[in-house]
Amino acid sequence: MRFEVLGSLRITDGEEVSTVSASKMESLLGALLVRAGEVVSTDEMCTEIWGQEPPRRATATLHVYISQLRKLLRHTTGSASLIETRFPGYLLHLGNSILDAHEFHALARQGRAASRTRRYADASALHGRALSLWRGPVLGELRGGPIVEEFALRAEETRLECVEQRNEAELALGRHRELVGPLYALVRRHPLIEAFHRQLMLALYRSDRRADALQAFRDLCAVLDGELGIAPCRQVRELHHRILVDDDPTVPSAA
Prior knowledge:
Elements: E1 2-4, E2 10-13, E3 16-18, H1 23-34, E4 39-41, H2 42-50, H3 58-77, E5 83-86, E6 89-92, E7 98-99, H4 100-116, H5 120-132, H6 146-172, H7 176-189, H8 194-206, H9 210-228, H10 234-244
Parallel strand pairs: 1-7
Antiparallel strand pairs: 1-2, 2-3, 4-6, 5-6
Helix pairs in contact: 1-3, 4-5, 4-6, 5-6, 6-8, 7-8, 8-9, 8-10, 9-10
């Protein structure tokens, strides 16, 4: 059995896919999943579902949702004991089930280790496998509660790091021309992440597009000055200087 939170919440078993149709039960399951193996207090779950103004009978209603969720999981997974009552709230046991977020973080760690030992083909493949697990924003429309929101922000940071590390591995493997298009898209979506601009500059330069590489640096300078009033970091400035003097730069390591 597989629980998936890197996108809309769903439960898969081979080709069979199950979802939770009731929005508050879906929010409850999402919070329990991202904190799997930890006790989530009743107060935390009420805040997750209803915000700062829960209804008068919030605790009693929460107990009903938990009961319904247990029945759903029993029907879906065949186990009635995934959710345990433990003071001051509830704890979800994954047991033999898989959570895609755990798999993602494990692959990202393996990818970083491969990068550190310069196994760039392995690093690229591992980061690629990690990124392929993402189907969309974490938990889709469930964003807003503090538990899910905190988890989603941390997961997104790791995802962007994973993208950066895969790009570094691809650059080290000499795949500069293939990276130009994706990197232009990345700097448009994340204009303040200097690593993506640096990688674009290097990919352009190594693709015999020196003028475009220098223009990419000017574009970054304009964005940083306009948005934050700062200049690019030292690593980007050093790369710019080496492109200016036509001194083929080595691939900077982000490991």
